[in-house]
Amino acid sequence: HGPMNMPHLRYVTFSYSVGLTMRDNGRFKELLISPEYQKLWNKRFTLRKVGEERVTNDKTGWKFASSVGGVGTGERGDRVILDDPHNVKESESDVVRSETVRWFQESMSNRLNDIEKSAVVVIMQRVHAEDVAGIILSEDLGYTHLKIPMRFDQSAQQYPTKIGWLDPRTKDGEYAWPERFPPEALAPFERRPYMWAGQYMQSPTPRGGGIIKEESWQLWPGESYPQCELVLGSLDTASTEKEQNDASA
Question: What are the pLDDT digits (tens) for 48-77?
């Protein structure tokens, strides 16, 4: 607000948990009331309400914290921010994930004050091919895509974003920030292919495959298949008490 001289802007922030957005609003509040910030920008606006859920000023600007499907769906903002829409523990549930995506498409995306001047920002780690980010990309919704994989993938298409950022790495497999996240600390996560592919590489489908690798599949060289003497049937009955499993056929 202060540095940009736009204290009238209204922010609506969402996450899968209202506790996360209220936590961030609390940090935002602490920044605004800090002596350093007040010394620099207190002449541009005056704070009126300072709380974890809502922070307001005397220039009609405010920042509101809500959650996916929460009360904030009735609010409109100049900046609508969605930070971590999916709970990782529920990302494999088609019902929960699809409901979150539906809420994003039908409710949250309509929260803009001005279609031409307002903006939606989605910040997230990838948890599934059909998560919110996956839908944004597959349906080409016009977002600027900023993707920073933990390890550089030279085979992936590299392109400068509209905000001017281009991955400076050139060596395949190079880590993004080894001083902060050293390779030895990341090694245990790299051994979990699906977790690593989504949450660290930002590509939910592991490169080369997950349990069964791409190179494991080979074409039969002949024009006809050999005669089979034994047929095996394999059943995955999903016979547990968890409600997120696929139904048995």
Answer: 989 889 999 999 999 999 998 776 657 889
List, in sequence order, the alpha helices (H) in the chain.
Answer: 18-33, 35-41, 94-106, 132-138, 183-190, 193-195
* Cα 205 to chain centroid, rounded: 15
- Using alpha carbons only, give the angle 122, 161, 83 rounded to the nearest 5 degrees: 10
For residue 120, give the nearest of 138, 136, 96 by alpha carbon: 136
Q: pTM of the entire structure?
A: 0.78
Say whether 22 sits in a helix, a strand or coil. Answer: helix
Query: Do the beta carbons of residue 1 and residue 65 sit within 8 Å?
Result: no
Least confident of 66-70, 149-153, 193-197: 66-70
Dist CA 44 CA 61 (whole Å) = 12
Helix, strand counts (H, E) of the chain: 6, 6
Q: Which residue has the tokens 């859920």?
A: 53
> Rounded to whole angstroms, how far apart are CA atoms 108 and 99?
12
As a whole number of Å, the end-to-end CA separation of the chain is: 56
Q: Residue 224 has what DSSP assignment? A: S
Max CA separation in the chain (angstroms):
86
Strands (DSSP E) found in the chain: 10-14, 47-50, 54-57, 62-65, 79-83, 119-123
Question: Across residues 235-246, what is the average pLDDT?
Answer: 67
For residues 76 and 111, is the Cβ–Cβ distance under 8 A?
yes
Decide if 58 contacts 1 (C-beta within 8 A): no
